Amino acid sequence: xxTEEQERIDAVTRYTRGEKxxxxxxxxxxxxxxxxxxxxxxxxGDEHWYKSHSRAPKKQARETSPSIEQAIVTIRKVLIEGTxxxxxxxxxxxxxxxxxxxxxxxxxGEIPSASTIxxxxxxxxxxxxxxERYKRVRSKKRYTLLKPxxxxxxxxxxxxxxxxxxxxxxxxxLHLIDVVSxxxxxxxxxxxxxxxxxxxxxxxWQEKPIPVHLQVDNGMYFVGDxxxxxxxxxxxxxxxxxxxxxxxxxxxxxxxxxxIENFNNWFNDKFWLKEEFxxxxxxxxxxxxFETQFNDLNAWKKRDKGLQQIIPKRTLKCSVEIxxxxxPLTDGKIHFIRRVHNDGEITxxxxxxxxxxxxxxxxxxxxxxxxxxxxxxYYRAQDEDVARMIKEIEYQLKEEIxxxxxxxxNN
Length: 411
What we know:
- This protein has helices at residues 3-16, 21-28, 32-43, 66-81, 94-103, 114-123, 194-207, 220-223, 234-242, 258-272, 280-301, and strands at 154-165, 169-178, 184-189, 213-216, 245-248, 329-330, 333-339, 345-348, 351-354, 363-369, 374-379, 388-394, 401-402.
- The protein contains 11 helices and 13 strands.
- The chain has 3 domains: 3-43; 66-123; 140-411, Ribonuclease H-like superfamily/Ribonuclease H (Nucleotidyltransferase, domain 5, 2-Layer Sandwich).
- Strands 3-2-1-4-5-7-10-11-12 form a 9-stranded mixed beta sheet, with helices on both faces. A two-stranded parallel sheet has the order 6-13.
- The chain is α/β, with parallel strands linked by helices.
């Protein structure tokens, strides 16, 4: 018996006699992970539980045939060139190669794993320099109360631009993404106006379900008035009217909208920098193809995830007329993520609220409930699994709050 095997037996013996794991690990200078690995091996009933298992691979690697290897090389080169209409916006990664092989008729058993494809790409010198991934703050998402697991639970939306088409002028591209399914909607406009945002959403919600939450930044095309306290923009009113809860991320914190920011990078690299456009109509036509390829690729990536849709799925009736220039305030909720300033305050809709100096530098989640005319502030510390309400503030509004209409949606 080796010294290591005797050490494992001694550790498990001490554990079964009731000694504290922390004491055992400290004295034996081992981690708890190591201790419980051998405790679990002991509990398995294996007579030789204390012996090391062989680290040799249980399955012998299957050699890739020359024809499959050549197909991978060819597809990779085509994706790098980006001239094939069916695949020009897919990127060049292993998943894109697998996706194209399936579309080209290769059987499931013929398509190699991602690691094999990467090895073949490296072997043939077909690697490309990767763009630096979007950096996210190591916040562990304590700033948010949302943990979406279903399609249409949370959408994120953002404008990109303005960009300039030579000989035409400025354009801005409005992007929306479902954070669970990664399905997107893309549309270009001649300006970042609230009217364009409202038209975009009304058309989208007639085709696709209204999300539970729609998360955006603090751009004027969403917030509207930067001066009047408790001022609700037409965009906010529309979202309340159709029954989606807006979430405004903290100012100057694009990493909180990480999904849409990553897509914006993809849009820039795989579409804007690769194409030439004559005018906005030309760009819109090409972006339809870009959107289709991106959505098809991501549907293929998530085909085995078993994703579920939020029920009920609510889409707007095409016959319903909504005048977004004359919308009432409707019963609902709007949420704001805010960082507490050095004076212990936050700003919500052009109004300052005192939270407390003990929260300086921390993020809080604020919910305005229009029906109750209350504002609740939530905070989650590092050692807390659930956010707790730390403040409740009266939030009186001069307008009458109308109930939400129930005849807006398709059955």
